[in-house]
Amino acid sequence: MRPSSRPPRRVSTALVLLATLAGPPTALAQFRPPPATEAQRLAEQGDQVLVSANAALAKGDKKEAEEKFRKALQLFEQALGEDPRSVASAAGLGAAANALQDFQRTVARVQPVFAQNPEDLTLAYPLGTAYFKLRRFAEAVPVLEKVAAADQPDHLIVHYYLASYYLYAQDGNRAVTRLQRYLTLRPEKLAGNDFQIHELLGKAHLLRRDAPAARAAFEKSQAGRPESAPAQIGLASVLELEGRVPESRALLERLVTKFPQVPEPKEKLARQYLAAGDVPRAETQALALVKVSDTPAAHLLLGDVRLAQKQPAQAEAEYRKVLALQPGLLMGQIAVGKALQAQSRHEEAIQFLESAVKAGGGSLELWATLGSVNRRAGRFQRAVEVHRRVVEMAPRQALGWNLLGADHFATGQWDQAIEDYGSALQVEPNNANAKQWLARALAHRARDRAGTQRLDDAVRDLRRAYDLDRSVPMGRRLGAALLDARQFAEARKVLEGTVTLPGATWREHLLLGYARLGGGDAQAALAAFTQAGEATQEPDQRAEASAGAALAEVELGQVDAAVQRLTDAGPSKTAAKVAEANLPRVLVRRALSKLEAGDAAAANRDLDAVDRLGTGKRTDLAKLATFARALTRAEEGRFAEASAGIKRALTPVPEWAWPNSRALADAWVLYRQGKVAPSRKLLTAAQKKPMPGQPRWTGALTGALLRREAALAYASGNMKASEKALKAALATSPDDAQVQHNLACVEWRQGSTAGALAAWKRLENSVPVAALNLGIDAQERRHEPAEAVEAWRRYLASGAGARAAQVREWKDRLQGLYGLGDAQGAAQSGATAEETP
């Protein structure tokens, strides 16, 4: 057989148990617990003294309690001296030392034992408490969280400690968890102090930006007690969170009066005044706060007021007082750095903040401020290094990315800045600072891209910027870029939205006018330009708006008004450039309009003005002016000059002309010469490939050629040819009263007097010469002088008669011969056909 492998200790234990069960009763007396060690004996004595100390403390005898705590501490120290690894001795020492507020001793003596027993809560509780009291939070929190997880009633205060820390660390969610757990575990006899816990809960909910929960907590804290300043201050914070700042301020102003010695309402009210830009009132409250509370918070507030008053030296003095009262206070160190920077003492600020960092400052704000001061000092590389550290410390916050974006923005590294702000929005999609500065970085990059003719890329950047920042400046930039890209419809949409935003100025209305003008809506463009002019009192700006209005008026056919505006452009250099660029074009356009109305002299005056102004390097405009001049020469009967001018203007064919413009213009000149056949030949050839908009014009020229052919035939006595041409003209324009009138003249000459008379009577109101012909018929054919005189009187009364002087002579003669008036002579016979140019 093989010997048993059972461990010796287990064998001995079994033998002892067997002997105990089998032996006689007297055998039990033979087994005694081993004698206590010296360490155990001292620890037991220490526990007894500790119980007595707590009993004395409960009775209110603080002196006796302190004496006993010191005796217990001495005993536990001796016990640990005998056995440095004793858990019971270390736990007792921690309890006694903490009661005497000797937290350094607790850490020094308990921590080594806890390192060997990390799961022992009797060690974790006093050690975590000591760390917390020493404000060594990085070490305290993990230990206290371990104690809190056990949920033991004896350790209730740990939940309170942790909640206080999380409030300090601005972690509202964890603070709420601990405070709610405290309320669950606390014994009924402590319920009277719940108001304090509800007050802290309200502050935690404020950090979570949960206004309803915060209000409920503060109201519970206030319930059943006289008005409490902390609870009322909390309710003021709730009002501020809800956006009801005036109500919050009114409540704080009441609290300042009701609780004049309480510092918190003064501090919070002063902060609200500062945020609203009311620095004098903020100063009043800050000075009052310093009088009632000479604390770091009071001097920090007063320093902030001095900084807002642009008094950085005085602000620095206040911030130095903060550090004198509480050396190493993080907010004070940051504030001193900002004050030094505000005095342009950048190197001092950097050295100060660097020292704070080396001294163990692990605050995000401290590192952020250090980087920002380096950036303002022009030490951009160091700023980037420091702010990258901020990103590493808080990778899920936008702060570090925003600061890196600012560093790259300051050096014009737009691509990198855009990437940084984009990263900030990835971790915090609604971060307002990242949105604003990303939009600005995009706008700057768009400007650079537009400068290198990358207009599509620029527009793309600005669209993204406008989506992020729906502001007037961004809308203006995007609208201007779209105008440059000739995307008038989108520019109009963007600018019509921009002019409705708060802060819109005359310039946005001006750009909107150009967008509408580019899109072909001249009437709406004129309205926008008019509104731009009304939105400013500056002469230069009004001149720019007037120049834009002139361009809209041109498109509306109000050319005379446009010429007047552009001629008197005003003091603006921009308006002068617009006038210089457009007045020659507008004058040429008006010259063409005058030609269309048959006023060649006025057209020549406008073209003479164009010659004086010059067309610069605009070859197409010069050719258009030459073309218009050629047409005036045709109207003046200088046909050779007209043909030569047309050839110069249309060879080679400019952009504004059609491929068949030369044929159409030559046809017009031949028409004016009376050369109907060659004009029609050219016109027929040009009509084989008509361009958009030409059919109406070629139809009008065809009708004019037919009327000219009819007039020439009529003058030569060829009534049949005249009749044929007029009927063809009437077929193309059935409602043309002039053609109807002239056809009636042909009929009269051919003896069809009844139809001719009927037509003339019908047309008399629209064709004044019809009354002249009615008078001729009455005098010559029917011998009715009175009727003739009456018809001629109507002709003269129309004021549109080209033969008014001659007709007046005829009328006077008939009146004299027949006693109808003074005798002047007899009338000339023959119906008159009105020719049309």
From TrEMBL:
TPR repeat ranges per the UniProt record: 53-86, 364-397, 398-431
Keyword Amino-acid biosynthesis annotated: no
Keywords, in A-Z order: Repeat, Signal, TPR repeat
Signal peptide stretch: 1-29
InterPro entries registered for this protein in UniProt: TPR-like_helical_dom_sf, TPR_2, TPR_rpt
Pfam families reported for this sequence: TPR_16, TPR_2
Domain of life: Bacteria
PROSITE patterns with a match to the protein in the record: TPR (PS50005)
Protein name per the record: Tetratricopeptide repeat protein
Taxonomic source organism: Corallococcus sicarius
